Structures are given as structure tokens and as C-alpha cells.
Amino acid sequence: MSRRPLSVGIIANPASGRDVRRLTANAGLFSSTDKVWVIQRLLAAFGATGIERVLMPTDMTGMAAAVQKNSRSRQAREQHWPELEFLDLTLRQSVEDTRQAARWMAEREVALIAVLGGDGTHKAVAAEVGDIPLLTLSTGTNNAFPELREATSAGLAGGLYASGRVSGEIALRRNKRLLVREPSRGLCEVALVDVAVSPLAFIGARAISRASDLAEVFVTFAEPQSIGISALCGLWLPVTRQQPHGAWMRLASGSPEALLVPLAPGLLQGCGVLEAGYLQPGQPQSLCLGAGTLALDGEREIEFNPGDRPTVTLDAGGPLSIDVNAVLEHAARQRLLAIDRSHRQHPMNLQPEDTPGE
User: Fold this and answer.
1) Which of 43, 85, 178, 358 could form a disulfide with 81 if both were Cys (CB 3.0 to 4.6 A apart)?
2) What keywords appear on the UniProt entry (predicted)?
3) Quick check: helix, strand or coil at residue 83?
């Protein structure tokens, strides 16, 4: 029986980095061309670590077409990019495209999925793939769950794990999550980073970019360098990804204490802090408002009324992700990237024209 090729997936959200916060703040644009370059750096790293096949969905912005064209280039041959396989989706230009691609990759039993997007993209993929690990790459607006890092290093870490050279005990991190439940409506939704309670009655434009639109915040983790809603707790009551608890904060414009927070890139606003504390796992939290909307990972998704009783609960059942730093630190200690004379990239095997800068 023939051996199945060692495969990983890449999902790049064409719409990430292009939302309304480009108009309401000073957020930059992450173009399709930028994402193609990120994908190609991943392919080089995957090829160097023994990945044989990469699965990608098609899209309407030309990313997949550009990658496919460039896969026939001299650079791709010299870097031994993996074989590419594309899923020809029936495109809806919505989050369902991401979900459909993730389900396809799960059915193909890929070793991991590299995700290019923001918090919402990663949440959509995680909802479909069970315990397939995510290699997270930030290409969205307010990114907290995917860490900002160079794709080549991330690809090396992902490839070392997927090829079996670094064990899951070292490479994988189980993330926390927030469960939003409303029993009378049979509602159970997931957030990977934060849930914000807003007095706004309708979902509307989804994104929250004003302090006056926030009444309460729950977070799985909160880092001081974050941008967005989780930055509220990150600059007041920081919580790491590794700690078992989360944090919460209640806000009111008339509070005696206030905090200057970057709610979006280039958008700093003062938020009145009424009270804050740690969020313990497994303990459902009621909301401070009787009606309004709930924003999950930065976007309003749920409307609730006085007859509803939604709760927010922290638990440790979130997706697995690749701990890039841990993998590369292990690789350094074990010399996993050391090569001998037989390796094609050994300096003694390079021709003069192959030497960078010459």
C-alpha cells in the first residue's frame, strides 16, 4: 500500500485586513499580494522541513492563482516547494468559504493548518477542525489570538512538528475559550479572545471602535501590547495565554478611574473603569446589562433582550496551536536544523550563482 504524502493546509482569508476600521482608525491594509508573499515563505519553510503536499482553497482575489503560477518558477524548484493541491470552492465571499475549506482539510487529515487572518478567521477554522493544530499568522485588523511573526520562522516550526521531528508535547498549546450560552434560545457560541457587552441594541456594522459602546468585557487572555478590546484588561489586569484564568472588566463613563486604550490601530480612547477582576474557569458569568449586543472577538454577533439570560463561561477547551517559540528553542537545543554534506543546501553544494547577493 502506498504511503500517503505528508500534507498540511493553508487558509488565507482574502477579506482579512480590509474591514471598516480602515475608515474609522489608521489601520493598514494587508493586500492580497502581501498574503501571497506570506504563503510563499511558508511553502519554502515547509519544503525545507519535509512537507510533501500543501492543500489550499481557491479564491476570487487571485491569491491561489498567483501561488500556483509562482510554483513553476526557478525559485520554487530550488526551494523544493511541496506539491500544491487546490480546492475549487463554490465561493460565497463569506465566512462559509473559510469553514468549507477547513472541513475539506479536516477530511483529508492534514497534519496542521496554517491560517492567515484575524481573530474571526481563526475562530471559524477552529470550529471545523477539532484537534488539528493551527499555525497562526496575523493578517487581520485587531489581532490578539494569532501572534505577529515572520512566516518563514513559523513555517519552520510548523514543518518540524508536522514531520514528526518535534513532539506534540513540546509543540502544541491548548488555548482557552469563552462560551456564550443562552439556554432559552439554545444558543452556544465561542470566542477565542474576548466577549464584549455593548448597550447598542442592534448588530449594525459589527465592529466596536468607541469606548461608549462598551459596558463589560470578558477575556481569555490579555497582553499589554494588544490592540483592541482585550487591551482593556491587558493594560489594567494582564493575563497570559498560559494562566488558567481569564479576566473581566466593567466600564462606565462616570467612573473615577479611567484608562487610555488603543481600541484599534491609531485609535486611542479613554475608558472609565468601574471594576475588574479575574475570571475563573467553569463559572458562568451573568451580564451587567439586561439588553444590548454581544461582540465575540471584536465583532457584534448576538442581540439579547430583557427576557434573555445569556452567560459567559471560561474553559480550557479551545483549539490547539503551534507554539512557535517552543519548537524553535527545542530545535536549537537539539540541532534539528543542522545539515551535513549530503544536504542540497550545504554551502559546499551551492553553485556560485546560487549564493545570495552574488
Assistant:
1) 43
2) Cytoplasm, Kinase, Transferase
3) strand
State how far the Cα of 26 lies from the Cα of 287, in Å rounded to an integer.
32
112-143 burial, b at 16+ Cβ within 10 Å, e below that, comes to bbbbbbbbbbbbbbbbbbeebbbbbbbbbbbb
pLDDT band at 358 (very low <50, low <70, confident <90, very high): very low
pLDDT at 8 over 80: yes
189 vs 182: CA distance, rounded Å: 9
Handedness of CA 318, 161, 125, 218 (dihedral sign): positive
Residue 38 and residue 137 in contact, taking contact as beta carbons nearer than 8 Å: yes
- Residues 54 and 9: their CA atoms lie apart, in Å, by 5
Contact 137, 206 (CB under 8 A): no
Contact 53, 6 (CB under 8 A): yes
pTM metric for this prediction: 0.90
Which alpha helices (H) appear in the chain, and where do they start and end? 21-24, 32-48, 63-70, 74-79, 95-107, 119-129, 151-162, 168-171, 231-234, 324-334
Say how far residue 51 (Cα) sits from the centre of its chain: 22
Tens-digit pLDDT profile for residues 305-329 = 999 999 999 999 999 999 999 999 9
**pLDDT classification of 148: cutoffs 50, 70, 90:** confident
Q: How many residues does the chain have?
A: 358
Q: pLDDT tens digit string along 87-129? A: 888 888 889 999 999 999 999 999 999 999 999 999 999 999 9
